[in-house]
Automatic annotation (TrEMBL):
Record keyword Transport present: yes
Protein name from the UniProt record: ABC transporter ATP-binding protein
Keywords, in A-Z order: Amino-acid transport, ATP-binding, Nucleotide-binding, Transport
Top-level lineage group: Bacteria
InterPro entries: AAA+_ATPase (IPR003593), ABC_transporter-like_ATP-bd (IPR003439), ABC_transporter-like_CS (IPR017871), BCAA_Transport_ATP-bd_LivF (IPR052156), P-loop_NTPase (IPR027417)
Family, similarity comment: Belongs to the ABC transporter superfamily.
Gene Ontology molecular-function annotations: ATP binding; ATP hydrolysis activity; branched-chain amino acid transmembrane transporter activity
Location of the ABC transporter domain: 2-234
Length: 234
């Protein structure tokens, strides 16, 4: 579904990603964990076409999307849930969700998609007329994910969905992400919460100083002291 190979990205002269390669297979949920500043957000943004990369290749569903701008990446079935959620505070939950389906192809089947989002996030159904700005942080994260799902993606990219959320709401968000994966959507999740990432993903990459420092089945990484040291700086 997603193949990234040899990706390099910079901020000015500072290198943020060095030869990053990773794959997400069809229907798979993959996590990227790493400490602050490891390059996780840069990786998501580079795949989404939001940050330029200097070299490397990105392919989605076998199609090369290297250098495709963000507004066209979605045409290849990629949806992004950015760090910090960024819902439209004065617009209703319903209108925020509709924004995710603005593309013509996404508009077909609108009702079914809305129902699937509400199945995954029943809280959103109860709050459908409420301005998004009045939702709790966790509910806003659910809305941001729901909005991305309204585009009917085959690949969902998530940047730190647990950020700033109370543990109980993080649980709910991660449970919902499990349901999204079960619906057949491939997921690439960038996350600092190691345990939640390892629990959700079948495979996990460890990113450190812009490089892939390790990779494997999440079950194998769960007990690794090296992973904890690297991510948590212990
Ligand atoms: P965090 O978990 O703290 O969000 P991260 O793993 O997502 O960190 P990035 O935000 O991708 O890491 O940052 C990677 C590197 O690029 C860091 O050294 C960071 O300081 C640098 N960087 C990020 N954004 C910019 C920017 N706009 N200008 C310059 N340098 C940046």
């Amino acid at each position: 579904m997603l193949e990234v190979s040899g990706l390099d990205a910079y901020y000015g002269d500072a290198r943020a990603l060095s030869e990053v390669s990773l794959t997400v297979h069809d229907g798979e949920t993959v996590a990227v964990i790493g400490p602050n500043g490891a390059g996780k957000s840069t990786l998501v943004n580079a795949i989404a076409g939001l940050h330029p990369h200097r070299s490397g290749r990105i392919a989605v569903g076998g199609t090369d999307i290297t250098g495709v701008p963000a507004h066209r990446v979605c045409e290849h079935g990629v949806a992004v849930v950015p760090e910090g959620r960024r819902v439209f505070a004065t617009m209703s939950v319903y209108d925020n969700l509709c924004l995710g389906a603005y593309r013509r192809t996404a508009r077909a089947g609108h009702k079914q998609r809305l129902d699937r989002v509400f199945d995954v996030f029943p809280r959103l159904r109860q709050r459908v007329t409420q301005p998004a700005g009045t939702l709790s942080g966790g509910e806003q994260q659910m809305l941001a994910i729901g909005r991305a799902l309204m585009a009917g993606p085959t690949l969902l990219l998530l940047d730190e969905p647990s950020l700033g959320l109370a543990p109980v709401l993080t649980d709910e968000v991660f449970e919902a992400l499990g349901a999204v994966g079960a619906q057949g959507v491939s997921v690439l999740l960038v996350e600092q919460d190691i345990d939640r990432a390892l629990d959700l993903a079948t495979r996990t990459y460890l990113l450190a100083e812009g490089r892939v420092a390790g990779e494997g089945p999440s079950a194998d990484l769960r007990g690794s002291d090296e992973v904890r040291r690297s991510v948590l700086g212990l």
